[in-house]
Every structure is written in structure tokens, then in C-alpha cells.
Amino acid sequence: MPSISEIWTGLVQQPWLIRMLIGAIVGGFLFVVVPAITGIKSNPTGGGAGGSAKVVGSGTAIGGKGGGGGPNGPGGAGGAAEVNGDGFALGGEGGEAGQADRGGRGGRSPVDVLEEMGLANDTTRQIRIFQKLANEFIAEHPEKSEAIHSGKEQLPDEWTNQRLRAIGYDWHYTSTENGYRLEQLK
Prior knowledge:
two-stranded parallel sheet, single chain, elongated
């Protein structure tokens, strides 16, 4: 049986048309047969759809970027953003699809995007604090996880005000039907 170097030497001495045909056959084999045997798709699918944006009034809404695709499916859709009136809303990014060598990465939240752009302000800092408090509350009360994460329930007023004082914030928290009200204590 000839060695690889003998085969290579023999191929190099062939006319260019023969070398081109052999290259096309080998390339076609690698492109079609190898992925079929291994189960890995050679062409990743597209990314997820970008999030929708809707403004009623004079505000600004930006839908989140769709997540990148992978070998076995598209990325996640970006989050929707809606403003009624004069505010600003930014949808979160869609998560990346699973990759051949690892799982997909989660998309960034709107707060992550704003901080990366250097646009962090008091509101983004408050959001981070309340994310931390929500995680603490859920760790203590796991049965409330779904209700808190979905927004069906807000953090309890008394518990939240105690935690705010304990971590050094002079705020008074009151849950509302659609979120919460935060007032600076004097």
C-alpha cells in the first residue's frame, strides 16, 4: 500500500484538471458524508428574530437583538420594548443557540447593555439592587420564585424595607399593582 507522501507526490504530478476533479470529490465527501456520520450540521442556522418595539407618545423603544444561531437551531428572539408616553424601553437580547462544542450563552439584559454602553444611572443601579433583593427573597422563599420572576407578585413591603435599611439605603418601598414605588427617606 502506498504511503501518504507517495500518493501526494503522484497527485502533484497530475495535470491541473485531474487535481481539480480529485479536490472536488474529496471536498464533496468532507462536506456531505462527514457531517452525516457525525451528526454535526455544516451550516449553522440563522440567528433569532430581533425584538419588536412600540411607542405610543414621544418616547423611545428599542427591541432587543436576536441571539446567534448554532448548528442545531436558531438563537432566541430578542425581547420586545414598549413605551406609552414619554419614557425609554430597551428589550433584552435573545440567547445564543447551543454550539457544537458547548451550550449557548444567555443574552444580555437591558441593564447589561446600558452599562456596557456607559449609560448606567440611578435607575440601572436601582434595578441591580432590586435584582439582588429578589434573588435573596427567592432563596428564602423558593415557592415564590415563579410569581416574583413573572411579575405576578412583587417583593413584600415589610421584608424589602428591612433589607433596604440593612444594606444602607434610605428608601421606602411600596409595592403597586404594576411594580413598585420607591421614595427617598429624609
